[in-house]
Design a protein that fits this description.
The protein has a four-stranded antiparallel beta sheet, with helices on one face. Helix 2 crosses helix 5. It has six helices and four strands, in the order H-H-E-H-H-E-H-E-H-E. By secondary structure, it is of the alpha+beta class. Helix content is 39%, strand content 16%.
Length: 187
């Protein structure tokens, strides 16, 4: 399916309810490769991505269970499965890391560029009929999680980007009118 850039921007939604169908790793890699054309200062391309798809998902699910479901060992199988649906129904994952430059200006530029990269990935996935949800759960900073991603000391994990197929997209939320957030210079 080919859609215009405007159409992708206006129609894309964060998908919070995936249907459990897997997303092929190759599709994710193609999206991530095309997303690299995000604007970035000095062409630093400060992002690094860790992908979990296909046969790597059970290992990721176990880690997420350990870090995100308190006292999971005490839950019934059904209760645990219900708690884990927010992780197990996504068809693939990309964890996005950004290099944290010691210089404040460059650090802010790199964070902004990596955010642009993430938006590109979301729009490109939408074009392929794949939903995404950019999440920032607290466990991204957990030392055990950082170790699993082989995060370097100068890298910050800024996103858990879920990819998945879905049966229904959310309705668009209200947006401010342009007059509510744009002012004229010198006014």
């Amino acid at each position: 399916m080919t859609i215009s850039v405007k159409q992708a921007i206006l129609e894309r939604r964060s998908i919070k309810k995936f249907n459990g169908q897997p997303v092929e790793k190759q599709a994710v890699l193609e999206i991530l490769d095309d997303a690299k054309w995000a604007p970035n200062h000095g062409n630093r391309q400060p992002w690094r991505i860790v992908v979990a798809a296909e046969d790597k998902l059970p290992q990721l699910h176990a880690l997420l269970r350990d870090l995100a479901v308190p006292k999971w060992q005490e839950l019934s199988e059904e209760a645990l499965a219900a708690q884990m649906q927010k992780f197990t129904l996504a068809g693939a994952y990309a964890f996005v890391l950004v290099t944290e430059d010691m210089r404040q200006k460059e650090r802010l530029e790199d964070y902004a560029a990596t955010s642009c990269y993430l938006q590109n990935a979301q729009l490109l996935a939408w074009e392929k009929g794949i939903g995404t949800c950019w999440k920032t759960p607290g466990f991204l900073d957990n030392p055990k999680f950082r170790e699993a991603l082989n995060a370097k000391s100068n890298e910050r994990v800024i996103s858990m980007l879920q990819f998945g197929h879905f049966d229904e997209a959310a309705k668009a939320g209200a947006r401010k009118e342009v007059a509510d957030f744009v002012t004229e210079f010198g006014a």
